[in-house]
């Protein structure tokens, strides 16, 4: 899908909002809905990777698969491939956290905290590349 290359900032703003939501949910609740936190962390990664593609090539694929997005970004800047561990972890939270599963999702609070840390790291990494 072709997009205006300047709209990468809009994608980053949306990603930042997802990160704020994840952090706020974790801070607000004594027993937070960790699946929702992890879903927002997936969204941070997806929107940040798409922002990079918008800035670099002016188009994005219609996918929510973070591994596919990482591979596309890695073809443009190879160091993005260093995010594979974070992407593989966050990728599982899209479908599993968005819809009621056949098996209950067990996502301890520590896992949600790790997801936030990974989303923060990925976001900063990509934003630093976009600045260059």
From TrEMBL:
Record's SMART domains?
A: HEPN
> What is the organism of origin for this protein?
candidate division WOR-1 bacterium RIFOXYC2_FULL_41_25
Which residues are in the HEPN domain?
A: 15-126
Q: Report any Pfam family annotated for this entry.
A: HEPN
Protein name per UniProt: HEPN domain-containing protein
Q: Where are the transmembrane segments?
A: none
SUPFAM superfamilies associated with the record = Nucleotidyltransferase substrate binding subunit/domain
The record's annotation in InterPro entries points to: HEPN_dom (IPR007842)
């Amino acid at each position: 899908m072709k997009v205006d290359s300047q709209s990468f900032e809009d994608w980053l703003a949306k990603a930042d909002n997802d990160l704020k939501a994840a952090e706020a949910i974790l801070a607000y609740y004594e027993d937070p809905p960790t699946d929702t936190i992890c879903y927002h962390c997936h969204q941070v990664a997806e929107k940040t990777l798409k922002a990079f593609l918008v800035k670099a090539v002016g188009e994005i694929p219609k996918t929510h698969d973070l591994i596919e997005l990482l591979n596309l970004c890695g073809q443009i800047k190879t160091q993005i491939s260093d995010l594979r561990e974070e992407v593989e972890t966050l990728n599982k939270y899209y479908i599993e956290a968005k819809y009621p599963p056949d098996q209950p999702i067990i996502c301890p609070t520590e896992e949600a905290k790790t997801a936030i840390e990974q989303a923060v790291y990925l976001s900063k990494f990509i934003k630093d590349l976009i600045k260059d």
